[in-house]
Amino acid sequence: MWTIVTVIILLLAIALYMFGGMFFKQDGKKASGMDVVLSKGVSALAIVLIAFSVCRLWTPSYLLHTNPAILQEMVQNMQAQQEQEKNKVVRKYVAKHADEMIGSAPIAGNVDAKKTIFLWSDYSCPYCRRVHAELARVLADRDDVRVVFKNFSIHGPLSDAPAKAVIAAKIQDNAKAVALDKLLMDKEYYSQADMKDQAKLPEKIQANVMKLAKEAGLDTKKLAEDMEGDVVKAELQNVRELAQRFEISGTPYLIIGDQAFPGAIPYSRIIEALK
User: Fold this and answer.
1) Which residues, 6 or more positions from 138, have their beta carbon under 8 angstroms from its beta carbon?
2) Model confidence, pTM
3) For residue 236, how many other CB atoms are within 10 A of its CB?
4) What are phi and psi of 117, to 5 degrees?
5) Are 142 and 62 members of one domain?
6) With left for phi above 0 and alpha for psi between -120 and 50, is residue 274 left, alpha or beta?
7) Which domain holds residue 55?
8) Cα Rg of the chain (Å, integer)
9) For residue range 192-234, what is the model confidence (pLDDT) as tens digits?
């Protein structure tokens, strides 16, 4: 549609440039100063319209057919700029509110470490399992790093019970909370059979999570009570508010130092960011 309109404008502009001056010619009379000015104005307008039309027709063809790589480069540059702006927001906030961000979240690794990785993850997310494995490698190699688990419950019944359980487990013991986190990431805490009856799914997942909690050495009766308590509610609210602040819409999402990394990044990139 716009191409047709542009072609029409181009043709009219060419006609205006070629014949527009005729409107200001007077038979047998010398053109007045005003007529000359108007004639030149029409010619200038025609040139502008011709230039606009040619650019409008040529640019899409150039970008799509002659040099499509430039579009990819433009997108990459725009994304890099957006990432830099987001990192500025992260840097400024983390510098002032790191302790508040930790909240009641479980911490893996050296709890007193100076280098902190904040991880938004969901136990039903396969990409989160991948990044957990990479982070486990980092913690095995480094004793100056800690990982703060911000359990982001975004998949309803599949996420709610495990997210609450790991947060509540820290009330008993941080090390046991980390052990439960590992079990939930390493093992399948629900099956396809559990998924068949959606009405009973929350109950089944809760029972499965409690089995793993017992394996981690937790008091499951107290755990069940704490899962519905104020500490867990406050931490989940903290997770959601921070996710909104940093525009986190999915998992996994890492903040390493003052840089934000959406997606499951590999070991090498985590180590590079820690530098």
Assistant:
1) 117, 145, 147, 267, 270, 271, 274
2) 0.70
3) 20
4) -115, 120
5) no
6) alpha
7) 2-67
8) 31
9) 888 888 888 889 999 999 999 999 999 999 999 999 999 999 9
